Amino acid sequence: MKMGSALIAAAAMLVMLAAAPASARDRNQSQFDSEEMTITDSPSAEPIIAPPVTTPADSIYTVPRPSPVVVPAAAPEPAQNAASAAPDTKVDGAVTSSSDDASAASSDTPAAAVDGAKVVDGATTSASQDGVQTAAVVVPLSPEQKQDAARAQCVVRTPGAILFDQTHDDSPLDPANWAVSIVKKRQELTIYYKGRLFRTYEAVFGRNLDNGAKQWAQDRRTPEGVYAIIEKYRSMRFDWFLRLNYPNLVDRVRYETQLINGVVPVGDDGKAPEVGSAIGIHGTDVPILNAGHINWTTGCISVGNKDIEELERLLPVGTVVIIKP
Question: What one-character-per-residue DSSP string does 22-55 give?
């Protein structure tokens, strides 16, 4: 009997212990339900205001769009005239129809310019001479007109130019988003925007035939290494001058080592030249030499004047410039 009473008491105790956590959960759940948000279809009375776009003062960013890379478009194939049934004859490189009806029909067709010549259905013909039609003499378009026509038909944008066009903040002002790679043996200056190819420019360098890395002042060599644009200013001779931080630490150590070893030449006055300075990227006052890919500078990097104006606008001070052999 006593054993039965003890079992009943133990069961009652277990029931009471299990009920306590359950009641606590119920209280917590009811409190959570009372604080839970409800979703309604009615609009909120409070307006939603986007945070303002913060831009630094004097950050008006106007840069020229990069010149597009033009891929020449292929000349269209001659269209077939539905009214012509006679076979075609090729005379002096022009395709002509031996049918008078076809010639008359072609004369009503509007002309289109292809490679500097006006054509009708793919060929231009003149009046018949001794029963043979000959190609008409036409005035070719100028190179600028050809380039404009080709650009209108097919324009290829670089990945960097596309990304640049899609940028709507001040990130182009950050020098970390730009990089310049210069290869002397290819006479190229290439810029990258956010790691993507933006544009390649033609460039010329120091006129020393050795064309190695610059070692001291007046050796007429262009430096090689990793530099940065530290200053930009107008130049009466070169339009713009983007100065680099030459000599850097590597240049100074190499110069001091060569000076100690007697590699640096000594002038008639018994003095050795200094390590050099005032190296940068600039325009040109001899565009004919730049166009002929002739290295003529005393150590700087020279590009066309239109190119230096674009580079000045695009590249912020602090942009990394890597010059390779």
Answer: HHHHHHHHHHHHHH-----SSPPSSPP-PPPPP-
Q: pLDDT band at residue 165, thresholds of 50, 70 and 90?
A: very high
Going from N- to C-terminal start, the domains of the chain cover 69-153, 158-324
Grouping H, G, I as helix, E, B as strand and the rest as coil, residue 146 is helix
Under CATH, what is the fold of the domain 158-324? L,D-transpeptidase catalytic domain-like (2.40.440)
Query: What pLDDT does residue 19 have?
Result: 57
pLDDT for res 307? 97
Identity (one letter) of the amino acid at 242? Answer: L
Q: Which residue has the higher pLDDT, 227 or 126?
A: 227
pLDDT digits (tens, 9 = 90+) for 188-198: 999 999 999 99
Tokens standing for residue 124: 């231009």
122 dihedral zone (left: phi>0; alpha: psi -120 to 50; beta) = left
* Pair type for strands 320-324 and 178-183: parallel
Q: Measuring CA to CA, how many Å separate 210 from each of 146, 149, 213, 220, 299?
A: 40, 43, 9, 9, 12
Residue 170 has pLDDT above 80, yes or no: yes
191: tokens are 């810029």
Q: Does residue 260 have a pLDDT over 50?
A: yes
- pLDDT bucket at 20, cuts 50 / 70 / 90: low
- For the whole model, what pTM was predicted? 0.55
Contacts 24+ apart (CB under 8 A), 73-80: 73/149, 73/150, 73/153, 73/154, 75/114, 75/115, 76/112, 76/114, 76/122, 77/122, 78/119, 78/121, 78/122, 78/123, 79/121, 79/122, 80/121
Closest listed residue to residue 136, CA positions, set 99, 108, 107: 107
